[in-house]
Design a protein that fits this description.
It is a single chain. By secondary structure, the protein is of the alpha/beta class. The protein has 2 domains: about 110 residues, Aspartate Aminotransferase, domain 1 (Alpha-Beta Complex), CATH 3.90.1150; about 240 residues, 3-Layer(aba) Sandwich (Aspartate Aminotransferase, domain 2). The strands form 4 sheets. Strands 2-10-9-8-5-3-4 form a 7-stranded mixed β-sheet, sandwiched between helices. The protein has a 3-stranded antiparallel β-sheet with strand order 11-14-13, with helices on one face. It has a two-stranded parallel ribbon with strand order 1-12. Helix 2 runs parallel beside helix 9, helix 9 crosses helix 10 and helix 10 runs parallel beside helix 12. The radius of gyration is 20 Å and the shape is globular. The mean pLDDT is about 95. Bound molecules: pyridoxal-5'-phosphate (PLP). The site of pyridoxal-5'-phosphate has 11 residues, from loops.
């Protein structure tokens, strides 16, 4: 098995040697002083990097566990779910499978979700509105601040849940202005770590609401998680090695500076977009709302499987299309520790294959 490939996938993404090394420290128990310091340090660094004073919950599991927690803690009956792709659809399914009524707002794939799409939908009985900030199936980055403002204008009591799985740490999601109640991401995307840890930024409002919502579960009970988190502990056994890695990656992000980090992601996205315009049929998402972490390229007549196996034999891996646009597109992940130089190298190998 040859695993010696550079990943330009949409997550998990490439994890650097230095990051892997940072996770090889001795395992500590999660009730000791050193653990508390590690946990508290991570929380503070996330707050600093993302410029927020929200609660930061760290939970072993993939991001979905905390997307589920938001619904289970914040909603008794009804939500509005806006979707423009596979992960938006999943958030609706997640609400329904937890027994909630989800009023689905369908936005065409490839288009951004806009305030007008939810006109008159956020009625008084709507307890939460949820959507995906950066839709990983289509590469659309919607304006979550504008959506959140529209929710507040219609029903100030509605909670706001944002899936920031592929935008946090790659693009400025402006948490202060968004003022959401739950913002969720994981380690395997723009933090460039192995999968296995979910992060939820949580508002006081959501915690208050949770007190009156039954069946929050155990693992997903935000009140239990908060009680432990107040003491810099996790509710259940946390993936300590991954937390060493997270602490290391946060130091790196803070040293780079978040504005510089966001610019680097923008630069990588521009390279991919220009390449897609020149070599294939451009990118799939509408202009003005294109993701800086995932390039979704219109593949035209390209035989993706053949192209991808040649690419893999040259040491690179990208991602297939996803959901409804699986056969029409492919995806290049450019997030985490990847660089414009790395993207240029990838694109030149892709050029070579196209020219063969
Ligand atoms: C936008 C988005 N939301 C949610 C998920 C699910 O995340 P996880 O697999 O970490 O639970 C993904 C995974 O690719 C995603 O891209």
């Amino acid at each position: 098995m040859n695993l010696n490939r550079m990943l330009y996938t949409v997550g998990p993404v490439h994890v650097g040697e230095d990051t892997l090394q940072s996770m090889t420290k001795p395992i500590i128990t999660h009730r000791c002083k050193e653990y508390k310091e590690l946990h508290a340090g991570i929380v503070e660094k996330i707050r600093k990097a993302l410029n927020t004073d929200m609660e930061v919950f760290l939970v072993g599991g993939s991001a979905t566990v905390m997307l589920e927690a938001a619904i289970r803690n914040g909603v008794r009956e009804k939500t509005v779910g806006i979707t423009n792709g596979s992960f938006g659809n999943r958030s609706i399914e997640l609400g329904e499978l937890n027994g909630k009524t989800v009023d689905k707002v369908q936005v065409p794939w490839g288009m951004a979700m806009r305030p007008e799409h939810i006109a008159d939908r956020v009625t008084k009985d709507v307890e939460a509105v949820h959507w995906v900030s950066n839709e990983s199936s289509t590469g659309v980055f919607s304006d979550s601040v504008a959506l959140a403002n529209e929710v507040r204008a219609q029903n100030p009591d509605s909670l706001i849940f944002v899936d920031a799985v592929t935008s946090a740490f790659a693009m400025d999601i402006n948490l202060k202005d968004m003022d959401a109640d739950s913002v969720v991401f994981g380690t395997q995307k723009a933090l460039a770590l192995p999968p296995g840890l979910a992060v939820m930024l949580c508002s006081e409002r959501l915690l208050e609401k949770a007190k009156s919502v039954p069946n929050r579960g155990f693992y997903t009970d935000l009140l239990k998680i908060k009680k432990q988190s107040d003491d810099s502990y996790a509710l259940t056994t946390p993936p300590v090695s991954l937390m060493y890695g997270l602490d290391y990656q946060l130091d790196k992000a803070l040293a780079e500076g978040m504005p510089a980090r966001y610019r680097r992601h923008q630069e990588m996205a521009d390279l991919v977009r220009n390449w897609a315009d020149k070599r294939l049929e451009g990118v799939f998402p509408e202009a003005g709302y294109q993701s800086n972490s995932i390039g979704v390229v219109n593949r035209g007549a390209l035989d993706f499987n053949d192209f991808h196996s040649k690419l893999k034999s040259k040491g690179y891996e990208i991602s297939n299309g996803y959901g409804e646009v699986k056969e029409k597109t492919f995806r290049i992940g450019h997030m985490g520790d990847t660089t414009p130089e790395g993207i240029k190298a990838l694109l030149s190998v892709m050029d070579e294959i196209l020219e063969e």
